Amino acid sequence: MWNILQPYRSSIILLAALFLGGLLGILLPDIALKLKPIGQIFLNLLFMIIVPLVAISVTSSIARMTDLKKLGTILIAVLLVSIVMAIIPAAGIIALASIFDPAQGVVINLEQAIETGSGKMDFVSLLTTNDFVGLLSKSNILALIIMSVISGIAIGQSGKDGEKISAMLDCLNTVVLKIVSILMLVAPVGLGAFFASTMASQDTQLLTTFARAIALFFAAAAIYFTLGSCFYAWLGGGVKGIKVFWLYALVPSITALGTSSSLATLPVNIRAANKMGIREDIVDICLPLLVNFNKGGASMTTALKIVFIYSLLGLEFTPEILAVTLLISVLSAFIIGGVPGGAFLGEIFIVTTLGLPIEVIPILVIIGAITDAPATVINVTHDLNATQIIERLSGKRHHAISETGG
């Protein structure tokens, strides 16, 4: 039994700490409020590491793609397919959450002022900063990611000098991730204490909203997993593509559910793709890239977190916020999800970009921890779908070339 639960060990411990913290906040609010500084210290430590973590991790991962020209159209296809397959589930869960509001009128009151009150976004300030120093602020994470991607591409195309910088970044990345792992040792205590102080001043009905939000996600994930997989498989190979997909997708799905790791499932996915008859060169190039970029499950989780927290805070979900939510969801799937060891990066990304109070971080963590397994299943199985689609696109292109060349 323990072997089955081992992949979920950290999530179980964290959820248990948050549950105990919430219980303490409800039963002994006076004591719980005194624990807030402990949680604040932990979150401040995470905020202090967020900028170097994003800058170094994203830049080094992009820089490792040393020959972007060699990958050519396949890399472009991987990126475009990954973006589309992140937008679709994010838009779907937003629509469902708008119809079946998981908060159901429950509103939490927080002391911290909310910077998104008007619901209007300055996209210039959101995506860029007018000074290099601005990139060192956690409030400009989107601008930092954009510059990190550009820097990574530049390093990858700078020959031997770029290789030296890339090697140094890999070393720095190892150190930064070790810092994160050290901080995560006290995560249950820090977040448990912070959640206790948050619950001390809130209505107990807040707990029921979690159940509704998570139930909504599981229902949406089940629908998207079945119908979405059929649709993508059809795009990749018609009716035959659907049949061959479901014939070999079960083992990767079970492995993903058991390990809760897209990377750990990669060898199983490669074997399944080969059995499906997908071209070996496409499989060898696409799946290692897709395991980092194509994370529709993560995109769906991120979108639900934002819609849910806006409803809980009583904020208007305007068209501008919708656009930013889709952007954050895509980036969470496309880049944040590919940062190894980037625990809580998604939650901090949401809070800093949208100017939300930090008290909502434990709420976002609860949703993320419980939905992690089904989200991973979607990530893994849709990597197979994406490979089918990319093979079909690549095949059409080669067919067209052969016809014109003949």
Could you characterize the architecture of this molecule?
With 406 residues, the protein is an all-alpha fold. The chain has a single domain (2-405), classed as Proton glutamate symport protein, CATH 1.10.3860. 79% of the residues lie in helices and 0% in strands. The protein is built from 17 helices and no strands. The chain crosses the membrane at residues 12-29, 41-62, 74-100, 132-155, 175-197, 209-233, 245-266, 297-315, 322-342, 348-370. Pfam families: SDF. It is found in: Cell membrane.
Task: Please summarize what this structure is.
Pfam families: SDF (PF00375). This protein is an all-alpha fold and 406 residues long.
